[in-house]
């Protein structure tokens, strides 16, 4: 299984990087830029093509997705060669510094992901049993089975595959599914199961795509190879950054979107410094590709870019105007630009398409003072204090404030901090205005904060180095001082990533990354008491061997059985944990949920089961309504017709019985 995991990671990286490298290589980009922007083309293609294929009934396969992506890449490559053939040679040869930065980024990031994520998976096929994963697993399994990866019109039930008819009316109008499609693509290519594919794709995104994008973004802001080299070891230094997307929710589509965001932000920053119209158009084209990819993965990433880059845009407009007019007029123009950005934000906030998102409310959980403390020490949500990084951020903020050109970063950081602060400590209009595009979810808003904190921390450690060298020079030569200063900062960075440890007889140090590793371990431990326990999964596999292939099985999804369609292939009737509104559910489903136990004398129930071809009933928590092994979506009164069945109920024959687990056949 670990071999499948490694091969799936390789396949994921090949699918993402190969089209972009082919397309952008003739543009003579430096290595850092090439590695950062290459995934944008593949990600855009794998988001758009499935929608087009779905409209025309064309199945998605590795060949049908990768082939056109490579075709587009080759066309773009030839177009670039033709366009640049008569232009002055502006070739940027591969430099040792760029190679060192890319190598350092990958070496540190891969090591961190192995130590704090992969190592804490019980198996390569471990799954995080959380509410959101029910949707993720079922969608990927359905994508693989049907060959339809479209973000439009999804349903977990497909009659052409012999699936039971859906208990829910209608399909999803639109739900960003680019991440699900990427996992399905990797699983189909490698032959891996859904769980292995999920872990492999997430590993590739955290260990490779996001770090390379962050390194590029930081290099675009500060334009310093030395600072970029420092950044290469710090891009994953905040445990509440993209790490959080795989330990809470899980928010896997957010991970994919945010892995692409830094590259897009870097392209936006350098657009203002581009004096070559051809290169400017190329960068704008890449930004469009990134916008498409992010929008079809999780649009929240686009709004993060807006709130992070709005101060930069206003700042650049001010400095550009200042070169042509006096300061007052330039300030007026910049203020007008800020007003336009805010107006566009407010218009989006009021659009009907976003109302279900921006109106969603996570209740406040902290006092105003505690929220401020959590922001200051980067201990957002359930993460442990990160004093080492917080110190770097404080130093970075101070030095950035003294820099007129880079001061915009302070305002960007202030905006994301303000959004998080409102989310966890207040209620009302402002909370939704500044945090609504992230469902007012503290975890999502905490990642916004963490990403910009990482950028500022990189600048902070450079400032400390610059102050440390002159201090040491008082005692040693400049050359020796630089080495000592570098050694001190390397030790400092190592302490940031320190796992939790114990000084026996004294105290236990629960570090931020140690705490994160423990969370991942607990969530993925097979032997832990999850919603779907290891015993229940084994029982379900036995039950599957006792019934005909594709036999439809009635279940109560909140006992964990909603996972079974994707994990075992069992044709369960209910595959979502929560129920839709009553007008979105079929009459047959309502009868079964509320009155199945009456089948021996209720003709309507019997007719409903006959119509749907339902022959079996699976119960994993018989007479255990008070068990904690249910999600928040569990309400016993909604499932009385199923959960009141026992071994004595007329009309049901016991096929398999172990403890509180039962498989019944409808007689």
Walk me through this protein's architecture.
The protein is mainly α and 667 residues long. Among the domains are: 1-298, no CATH class; 534-666, Rossmann fold. The chain is built from 25 helices and seven strands. It has a five-stranded mixed beta sheet. Strands 1-2 form a two-stranded antiparallel ribbon. Strand 3 (552-555), helix 22 (564-567) and strand 4 (571-572) form a beta-alpha-beta unit. It is globular, with a radius of gyration of 27 Å.
Give a summary of the structure in a few sentences.
The protein is mainly alpha-helical and 667 residues long. The protein contains 25 helices and 7 strands. The longest helix has 32 residues, at 442-473.
Please give the structural blueprint.
Blueprint: H1 2-24, H2 31-56, H3 62-84, H4 96-116, H5 131-146, H6 178-190, H7 194-222, H8 225-231, H9 252-271, H10 277-295, H11 300-322, H12 327-350, H13 355-358, H14 368-376, H15 387-401, H16 408-425, H17 429-435, H18 442-473, H19 478-496, E1 501-503, E2 507-509, H20 512-524, H21 534-546, E3 552-555, H22 564-567, E4 571-572, H23 587-595, H24 603-612, E5 614-619, H25 640-643, E6 652-658, E7 661-666
Parallel strand pairs: 3-4, 3-5
Antiparallel strand pairs: 1-2, 5-7, 6-7
Helix pairs in contact: 1-2, 1-3, 1-6, 1-7, 2-3, 2-6, 2-7, 2-9, 2-10, 4-7, 4-8, 5-6, 6-7, 7-8, 7-9, 8-18, 9-10, 9-11, 11-12, 11-16, 14-16, 15-18, 16-17, 16-18, 18-19, 23-24
């Amino acid at each position: 299984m670990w071999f499948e995991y490694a091969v799936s990671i390789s396949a994921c990286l090949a699918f993402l990087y190969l089209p972009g490298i082919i397309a952008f290589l003739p543009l003579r980009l430096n290595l850092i830029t090439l590695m950062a922007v290459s995934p944008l083309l593949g990600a855009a293609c794998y988001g758009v093509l499935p929608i087009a294929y779905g409209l025309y009934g064309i199945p998605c396969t590795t060949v049908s997705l990768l082939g056109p992506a490579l075709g587009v890449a080759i066309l773009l490559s030839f177009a670039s060669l033709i366009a640049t053939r008569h232009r002055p040679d502006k070739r940027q040869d591969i430099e040792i510094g760029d190679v060192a930065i890319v190598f350092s980024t990958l070496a540190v990031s891969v090591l961190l992901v192995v130590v704090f994520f992969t190592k804490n998976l019980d198996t390569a096929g471990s799954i995080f049993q959380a509410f959101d994963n029910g949707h993720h697993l079922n969608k990927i399994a359905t994508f693989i089975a049907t060959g339809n990866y479209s973000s439009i019109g999804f349903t977990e039930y497909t009659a052409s595959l012999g699936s039971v008819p859906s208990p829910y009316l209608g399909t999803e109008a639109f739900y960003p599914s680019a991440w699900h499609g990427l996992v399905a693509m990797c699983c189909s290519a490698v032959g891996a199961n859904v769980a292995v594919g999920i872990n492999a794709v997430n590993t590739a995104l955290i260990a490779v795509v996001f770090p390379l994008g962050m390194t590029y973004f930081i290099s675009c802001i500060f334009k310093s190879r030395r600072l970029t080299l420092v950044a290469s070891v710090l891009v994953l230094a905040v445990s509440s950054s993209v790490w959080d997307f795989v330990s809470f929710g899980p928010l896997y589509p957010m991970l994919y979107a945010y892995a692409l965001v830094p590259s897009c932000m870097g392209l936006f920053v350098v657009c203002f410094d581009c004096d070559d119209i051809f290169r400017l158009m190329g960068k704008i084209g890449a930004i469009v590709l990134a916008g498409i990819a992010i929008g079809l993965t999780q649009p929240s990433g686009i709004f993060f870019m807006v709130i992070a880059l709005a101060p930069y845009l206003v700042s650049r407009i001010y400095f550009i105007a200042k070169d042509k007019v006096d300061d007052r007029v330039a300030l007026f123009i910049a203020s007008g630009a800020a007003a336009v950005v805010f107006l566009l934000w407010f218009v989006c906030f009021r659009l009907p398409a976003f109302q279900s998102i921006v109106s969603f409310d996570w209740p406040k959980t902290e006092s105003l003072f505690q929220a401020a403390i959590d922001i200051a020490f980067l201990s957002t949500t359930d993460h442990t204090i990160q004093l080492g990084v917080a110190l770097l951020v404080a130093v970075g903020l101070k030095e950035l404030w003294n820099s007129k050109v880079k001061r915009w970063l302070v305002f960007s950081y202030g905006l994301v901090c303000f959004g998080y602060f409102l989310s966890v400590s207040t209620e009302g209009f402002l909370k939704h205005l500044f945090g609504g595009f992230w469902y007012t979810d503290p975890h999502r808003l905490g990642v916004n904060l963490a990403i910009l904190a990482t950028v500022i921390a990189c600048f902070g450690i450079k400032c400390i180095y610059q102050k440390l060298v002159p201090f040491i020079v008082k005692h040693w030569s400049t050359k020796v001082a630089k080495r000592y200063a570098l050694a001190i900062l390397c030790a400092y960075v190592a302490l940031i990533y320190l796992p939790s440890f114990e000084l026996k007889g004294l105290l236990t140090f629960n570090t931020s990354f140690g705490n994160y590793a423990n969370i991942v371990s607990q969530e993925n431990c097979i032997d832990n008491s999850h919603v779907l326990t290891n015993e229940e999964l084994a029982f379900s596999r036995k039950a599957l061997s006792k019934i005909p292939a594709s036999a439809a099985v009635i279940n109560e999804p909140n006992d964990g059985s909603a996972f079974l369609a994707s994990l075992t292939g069992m044709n369960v009737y209910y595959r979502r944990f929560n129920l839709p509104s009553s007008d979105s559910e079929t009459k047959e489903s309502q009868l079964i949920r509320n009155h199945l136990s009456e089948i021996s004398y209720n003709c309507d129930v019997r007719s409903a089961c006959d119509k749907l071809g339902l022959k079996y009933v699976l119960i994993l928590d018989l007479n255990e309504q008070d068990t904690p092994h249910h999600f928040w979506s569990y309400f016993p009164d909604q499932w009385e017709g199923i959960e009141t069945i026992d071994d004595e109920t007329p009309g049901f024959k016991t096929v398999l019985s172990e403890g509180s687990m039962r498989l019944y056949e409808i007689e």
